[in-house]
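Reading a protein record of the kind used here takes little practice once its layout is understood. The fold follows as a row of integers, each naming the local backbone shape at the matching residue. With these conventions in mind, the following record can be read line by line:

_____
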Amino acid sequence: MAAKAQATITQFGAAVSLPEPKTIEQMGVRKSLLEDLALKTIYVTATPSLVELAASMRLSYRLVDELFARLRSEQLAEVTGMHGNGRLIALTSRGRSRALELLALNQYVGAAPVALEDYIQGVRRQSVRDLNVHSEDIRRAFSSLVLQEDTLNKLGTALNSGSAIFLYGPAGSGKTAIATTLPRVLAGDHVWIPYSVQADGQFITVYDPHTHVKLEDPVPDDHDARWVLCQRPAVVVGGELTIEMLELQLNPTSKFYTAPVQMKANNGVLIIDDFGRQRVRPEELLNRWVVPLDRRVDFLTLAGGRKIQIPFELFVVFATNVNPSTLGDAAFLRRIQTKIRVGEVARGRFHEIFARVCDEWGMNYEAGIVDELIDIIRSTYREPLRACHPRDIVNQIRWAAHYENRQPILDRKALHTAVEAYFVSEADEEELKAE
């Protein structure tokens, strides 16, 4: 049984305390598995010192020295010299043969894994449900967006609930911008993420440098180096999401597992953008989420059919331009406690968004020109005002100015040129239908 982690949580800034194991037994991982890992790591790194091996395996020198003593007694490894005060080590011919056999089974080398039981405890103790989000946190994170007060309040309430959020509304209304901004609320909070987890003798890599933001903050000298200090994770998936991405990924070459997206997002936010547009049917995805959303646990299957249970401690944000009632039944929708409609923007908000975009690109802002744009959108093209319109129109103006080798200016001529390039009129639609 794995030793229980000694963990304490404080909110926004300080992370759980995870002291390093003092003995092999405290790691909760079979000693033979660690010896095999040391053997493979020595083989891959050629002739390391014991200090380098300890750094690679993220273990204390004392524990690695204990593992090496066992390998040496079995005539699998030997000391080849000294580097300063450190011993240089290498594999014997017997050790190299054994390492090749082990690499044929799986090619995982490096950081020693965390026991599944310790991973579960670590995730539970860093749960997003233990955070207290207040209005100032929401306003700080969303200062770059122009949102209604009631929308901000709903987002803050949803984050405090620790449950899922459904953002829905027409295309271009700002759902994706809101969803991808939500993690900023938690950006000041730190969590520990393991390099890998061991379950039933199998390695599951969790820390992903392309997904997780590693922090360089100082850590206690006695911290467990098998865990990486990171910002609370934010994982975004869109139309590419498949059922397979929600399961353990076994690499046929390396023969170890990569954690699914929800496991990488534990203690953070998982954003499912453009929900309902995936290559798999929405009903299939929703059925996959019912138990995790309700019970806060998920079940993953290893090769051979054995299932393991992991925590499901994350915010799930669904963003869609499809009516939620058409995507799932009442039982599923009940599990998503907060549903926020993001629709047409009011005239005042439209002006403020436009002014911010102009300021961002160093362009002049003319309220009268923007009023004219609003009338054109509503009267000529019969479309609602959307949050995407200001940036899209300004981009059209910028691109045209770049083509003409001049500075972009917001005037009537530039506006009408941009509008004609961006919108499709009813007359154009009728003409296309006739063709």
Summary: Confidence is low (pLDDT under 50) at residues 1-14. The longest strand covers residues 77-83. The radius of gyration is 27 Å.
